[in-house]
Amino acid sequence: xxxSAFLGALIAAGLTAGAASAATLDDVKAxxxxxxxxxxxxxxxxxxxxxxxxxxxxxxxxxxVAAAVLNDSSxxxxxxxxxxxxxxxxxxxxxxxxSRNTTWTFTRDVDLKFTFVGVNYYDGQxxxxxxxxxxxSATELDGATVCIQTGTTTELxxxxxxxxNGMNYEPxxxxxxxxxxxxxxxxxxxxxxxxxxxxxxxxxxxxxxSAHMILPEIISKEPLGPLVRQGDEQWSDIVRWTLNALIAAxxxxxxxxxxxxxxxxxxxxxxxxxxxxxxxxxxMLGLDKxxxxxxxxxxxxxxxxxAANIGEGTPIGLARGLNAQWTQGGxxxxxxxx
Length: 338
Ligand SMILES: N[C@@H](CCC(=O)N[C@@H](CS)C(=O)NCC(=O)O)C(=O)O
Fold this sequence. Notes:
Elements: H1 2-12, H2 24-31, E1 34-38, E2 47-48, E3 54-55, H3 57-70, E4 76-80, H4 86-91, E5 97-98, H5 106-111, E6 114-116, E7 121-123, E8 125-130, E9 144-149, H6 153-164, E10 169-174, H7 177-185, E11 191-195, H8 196-203, E12 212-214, E13 222-224, E14 227-229, H9 233-251, H10 259-262, H11 269-274, H12 281-285, H13 291-299, H14 302-309
Parallel strand pairs: 1-4, 1-5, 9-10, 9-11
Antiparallel strand pairs: 2-3, 6-14, 7-13, 8-11, 8-12
This protein binds glutathione.
C-alpha cells in the first residue's frame, strides 16, 4: 500500500525512472561532475572527513566512476540521501547514480524501474542491543521497541521476522542512521536493526562499544549495490563495468601501486584487456582506453577499497566473508573482460 502510494507520487510527478532515457554520460561530461547519491553519513561507507572531503567504501565507487568518465576522481558532487529520498533523487535526475548501501530487490529493479549494476557488498539484517537488556538472541525480542529506518527493506524484513516467529514489537520509526543512534543510545528503543555492516559501522562510533552486542541472527539477504535509472544502457554499462574492473583488478593482482607498471603490458591477456593494452573495450563504452586504469588508480582495487574503509584493520573491523573473491570462497565474481 505504502509502496504503491510512493510509486503513484513518482508517476504523478512524471519522475518514473523508465521515462528517463537521456544520455547520462553526455550530461555528466557537460556538467563536469558526477552527481552521486550517498548516505547522509555512515562512517566507513560514506561520510565527510574532518576536511569535509567525502570518504568511504560507497564513496570510492562514485570516485572510480568519475575517474573513468571525467579523468578526475575528485569531480563528484555527493548528494546525501535518506532511505526515503534516495529513489526520488535518482528517478528525477537529481543524481546520476546511487552508491548507498541499497539492497537490490525485485520491486526496486522492476517496479521502480532502476537498474542495479552489481553487488559491492553482500549483507544481511541484524540487531544490536544493550547488553543490560539481557537478551542473547533475536528470538527473545517479543514485545521489544525497535528503532527502524523508514523507506528501507529493514522495515519490511522486521515485520516479516516478527510475524514468522509469532512475536510482537513496537517500531520507533526514524529517518537517518544518526537519528537512530541518538534514539537508541538515549534508550528510546530496546534494539536497533539495520544491515549488519551498518551496525558494525555504527558501533565503531559508540563511546562504550562493549556495552552493546550484535545479536547472532541475520534475518535477511541484503545484496547492496550501485544503481542507475533504467533506460540508459550505455550509462548502466559504464557503472557496471567500472565496478567489475575494481573486482577483476583484485582477482588479477592489479593494485593502485602497480597499475601504471602493468599498463605497459603483461603476459596475461585478461589483464591487458582490462587495462586497455590489448583490444579497445573502453571505446565500446564510449570511453577511452585508460578508463579502467584510472578507475583502479583512484582508490585501488576492490580489496584495497574494502581494507581501507571497512576492513579488519579499521575500527569497523568487517571480515571479507561473503565479500571475498570467488577464488577465496566468497561471492565476488566479475564476468570476463573480453
Ligand atoms: N539496505 C537497506 C537499508 C539501507 C539503509 O538506509 N541503511 C541505513 C542504516 S545503516 C543507512 O545507511 N543510513 C545512513 C543514513 O541515514 O544516511 C535498504 O536498501 O533499504
